[in-house]
Amino acid sequence: MTAMSLIFFALFAIAVLASYLAVRKSWVSTGMALLVGGGAAIICMVLVALGQGNGFVQALVVGFLTGAIFVVAAVAIASFFRSSESRSHSNLSE
After folding, report:
1. Is residue 47 a contact partner of residue 64, using CB atoms and an 8 Å limit?
2. Counting CB atoms within 10 angstroms of each CB, which of 12, 32, 64, 84 has the fewest?
């Protein structure tokens, strides 16, 4: 992995983490986190794939699938924990 690919991979990880935190802490709506975080993750993964010498079409496919899957999973997990947390707080107050 080249140095530039490693930098874009680190940015990918930051995008996924930021999407998770944005939903978990209710900083933005779930849709906005999916849109912005997914876009950033997809772009970063396309650039990682290009940096590894893949063709443009292959980089697009790999970047789109990998970026989308990771961000959707992170946002789904954050939504689950956020809803579980709010349910447990409402059960404690009753």
Report:
1. no
2. 84
* Cα gap 94→92, rounded to integer Å: 6
Summarize pLDDT for 17-27 with one digit per residue, the tens.
999 999 999 99
Dist. CA 31–CA 48, nearest whole Å = 25
Amino acid at 4: M
- The 10s digit of each residue's pLDDT in 37-60 is 999 999 999 999 999 999 999 999
Contact by Cβ (8 Å): 50, 17: no
Identity at 16, one-letter amino acid code: V
Alpha helical stretches, state H, the chain:
3-24, 30-51, 56-93
Q: What letter represents residue 35's amino acid?
A: L
CA trace torsion 62, 5, 14, 35 (10° rounding): -40
